[in-house]
Design a protein that fits this description.
The chain is mostly helical and 88 residues long. It has a domain of 53 residues: 30s Ribosomal Protein S18 (Irregular), CATH 4.10.640. 33% of the residues lie in helices and 0% in strands. The chain has four helices and no strands. It is elongated, with a radius of gyration of 20 Å.
């Protein structure tokens, strides 16, 4: 008889490794987040126009604050919409 902790499967199980999140600003050496670059800021918004949190984007706290301020300025200048149905 097989032991209790010995489990056999018919097919091998895939164990997918998640890619480690990284701050793209630190990696690329970006120091200033430009609020006039709407296409770049769209990467940090979801389809409804909401800002994505740090746990999803992988930004550091310092740059997440800069991104949020840039998005708010861009919305005020009408570069980005406040809400939308399909942004991307």
């Amino acid at each position: 008889m097989a032991k209790q902790n010995e489990i056999k499967f018919l097919t091998t199980q895939r164990v997918e490794k998640r890619q480690k999140k990284y701050c793209r600003f630190k990696k690329m050496g970006i120091r200033y987040v430009d609020y006039k670059d709407g296409e770049f800021l769209k990467k940090f918004l979801n389809e409804q126009g909401k800002m994505l949190p740090r746990r999803i984007t992988g930004n550091s706290l310092k740059f997440q604050r800069k991104v949020s301020q840039a998005i708010k300025k861009a919305r005020q200048m009408a570069i980005l919409p406040y809400v939308t149905d399909l942004l991307k």
